[in-house]
Design goal:
Layout lengths: L21 H13 L4 E8 L2 E7 L9 E2 L3 H15 L9 H4 L10 H5 L2 H5 L5 E2 L10 H7 L1 E2 L12 H14 L3 H13 L5 E2 L13 E3 L1 H12 L3 E2 L2 E2 L3 H7 L24 E2 L6 E6 L3 E6 L4 E7 L4 H15 L29 H4 L3 E4 L3 H5 L9 H4 L10 E7 L3 E8 L3 E8 L5 E7 L2 E13 L2 E8 L5 E9 L2 E9 L6 H12 L15 H5 L3 E6 L1
Antiparallel strand pairs: 1-2, 1-13, 3-7, 4-5, 6-7, 8-9, 10-11, 11-12, 12-13, 14-15, 14-23, 15-16, 16-17, 18-19, 19-20, 20-21, 21-22, 22-23
Helix pairs in contact: 1-11, 2-7, 2-8
Length: about 525
């Protein structure tokens, strides 16, 4: 597949020149920082130009980011193209596209299910595709229970978009990426992005895209302008209107103000400001269209509370929109620097353990629930069908500037990272399953026998911390994550329910909130081998 040539949105001279008050924007980001909302990137557009933009170091404009459910807006766009071209209809039924999945026992609801039900979250299934050991995700979907008749209610279920993706692939005779490339990616100048796939190679649909901040900006700007981009009608205008119109009242289902405002097809309406809609991904990935102000806001983050972040945006955004003016007094737009490195004295124990291999015992419980600890934190792999885990065969090889850490994970994945220890972070790549991420890492000795390793997957929302304690031939590993599962404990239950939605065990998370960090990141035990 050819890679699309990247193009860029025009940049304004400064924020004020296109009608953005840079001081207000800075106040907004400072309040987010005060509240613990760690922004990875932010971009604000006004009158078709980028007014201000910033990335939190060590991230950059060139680095894609996991966008989670923002992927749904891209799949919905593919559906809009297919409708416009007459390749599919809103009434196209699942059973007509996949007759081989029709069960022997009559299922009246399945015969009613259409692709439009799936993409508007009115399908009626409560599924657990990623919680099943079944490699055929469609079979898992068909077996799942019905909670209402298609079209009669609303329930946000990620797996609906995978099934819709599979239906599109079957009907189109090509992958969603192949279909979108000439229709969306090329006209918008988006380099062909990575999209995670199911075991059969189908794009996951509702998640799995990695996009640059500007890629999200291009999509939301195109929708904001009724499907027009650089003077060309890219997305059908009628589809833009339909996709961003509430399809079903969800006010009795959702709890927070902005989730209760209504869902279209891959897009959410916003309660905080009139005539505003958004694409949204967990951990606060946003593309927001402020139609009344001819503005857009794009944001990537690692924050668990979606409504808290939106509340801050609504607080400042009306005030931030001003009349364009010529000035040289625009405030520098910046985000907190997260590129600090810890440096501590090296320890004599390095000579004893360098080059040695340590075998680890498996933790039964995390394997039982399906989330053995990986070098990638759970937010990176929770939707993946190949998410590694059961880190083993650790080997530490020290030199004057750092340590080479090697290990294996389930699935036959072997990785090796050179990690700086003398004041400089080092960069590399790690592959687990179908996901390859760039990493920034450093290590230091907490005390004479405890080594702390910090590995940040740059495209992801969390940093992995591995603390190794050496005692004779024995080793203990204490894994954790930043942002941690022990922070803001009252919110963790809802966060994990969002992460684990559709999995059979999510109901007991509330009872285990105080201990959830230890449950998902248990102590691992091992010893030197041989």
């Amino acid at each position: 597949m050819n890679v699309c040539k990247e193009k860029f949105i025009p940049r304004a001279k400064n924020a004020e020149s296109v009608g953005i008050n840079s001081s207000v924007v800075l106040e907004m980001t400072e309040e987010m920082a005060y509240r613990g909302i760690n922004i990875h990137s932010m971009m604000i557009l006004r009158h078709g130009k980028v007014a201000c933009e910033a990335w939190s170091k060590p991230l950059s404009a060139e680095m894609p980011h996991m966008v989670y459910s923002v992927s749904k807006s891209f799949l919905a766009t593919a559906y809009g193209f297919a409708l416009d071209e007459g390749l599919i209809t809103k009434d196209t039924r699942f059973v007509d596209v996949f007759p081989e999945y029709v069960p022997k026992k009559e299922d009246k609801n399945l015969h009613k299910l259409t692709i439009h039900h799936l993409l508007t979250m009115t399908a009626g299934k409560q599924t657990a595709i990623r919680g099943s050991k079944e490699s055929d995700w469609l079979k898992t979907f068909v077996k799942a229970k019905w909670i209402f008749t298609p079209g009669e209610n609303w329930r946000y279920v990620n797996d609906n978009f995978f099934v819709a993706s599979a239906m599109l692939v079957r009907v189109l005779g090509m992958s969603v990426t192949e279909y979108l490339t000439p229709r969306l990616y090329e006209p918008l100048g988006i380099e062909t992005p990575f999209w995670e796939t199911a075991p059969d190679g189908t794009e996951t649909g509702g998640w799995g895209l990695m996009l640059k901040t500007e890629d999200i900006a291009k999509l939301i700007l195109c929708y904001h302008n009724n499907g027009v981009y650089e003077g060309k009608q890219v997305v059908p205008e009628w589809w833009v209107k339909e996709a961003t119109t509430v399809m079903h009242d969800n006010s009795q289902v959702e709890k927070t103000a902005d989730s209760r405002a209504g869902y279209g097809c891959g897009f959410w309406k916003c309660a905080g400001m009139p005539d505003t809609y958004r694409c949204e991904g967990v951990f606060c990935q946003y593309g927001i269209s402020f139609k009344n102000y001819d503005a857009c806001l794009i944001m990537t983050s690692d924050h668990s509370d979606l409504q808290e972040t939106l509340d801050v945006i609504w607080k400042y955004m009306p005030e931030a929109f001003i009349e364009p003016c010529e000035t040289d007094e625009s405030v520098e737009f910046r985000l907190p620097d997260n590129s600090e490195v810890t440096v501590k004295p090296r320890q004599d124990i390095e000579e004893k353990i360098s080059g040695k291999v340590y075998k680890m015992r498996r933790c039964r419980f995390v394997n039982f629930i399906g989330f053995p600890v990986s070098v990638f934190p759970m937010p990176v792999v929770f939707f993946s069908h190949e998410h590694g885990g059961n880190m083993d065969n650790f080997k530490f090889t020290f030199d004057t500037d750092g340590v080479t850490l090697s290990w294996t994970e389930d699935g036959g994945y072997k990785n090796s990272l050179y990690i700086g220890m003398n004041g400089n972070a080092t960069y590399g790549t790690v592959t687990v399953g179908k996901i390859t991420l760039h990493t920034r890492s450093f290590a230091f000795w907490e005390n004479e026998n405890t080594l702390v390793v910090k590995i940040r997957p740059l495209e992801a929302v969390a940093e992995r911390v591995l603390k190794f304690e050496f005692k004779g031939k024995k080793i203990k590993m204490y894994p954790s994550t930043i942002p941690g599962t022990d922070e803001k404990a009252k919110k963790i239950g809802e966060k994990l329910k969002c992460i684990l939605i559709g999995r059979w065990f999510h109901w007991w998370i509330d009872f285990l909130v105080p201990k959830v960090g230890k449950i998902l990141n248990p102590t691992h035990y091992g010893k030197k081998h041989p």
